[in-house]
Amino acid sequence: MSQNTIHAYAAMQAGEKLVPYQFDAGELLAHQVEVKVEYCGLCHSDISVIENDWNNTIYPVVAGHEVIGIITQLGTEAKGLQVGQRVGIGWTAESCQHCNLCINGQYNLCKDQQATIVNHAGGFSEKVRAAWQWVIPLPEQVDPETAGPLLCGGITVFNPILNHKIQAVHHVGVIGIGGLGHMAIKLLKAWGCEITAFTSNLAKTDELKAMGADHVADSRDPAALKPLNGKFDLLLCTVNVSLNWKAYLNTLAPEGTLHMVGLVLEPMAIPAGSLIGGAKTVTGSPIGSPADLRKLLQFAARKHIAPQIELYPMSKINEAIERLHSGQARYRIVLKADFDRND
Question: Which CATH architecture has domain 5-151+306-336?
Answer without folding.
Answer: Alpha-Beta Complex (3.90)
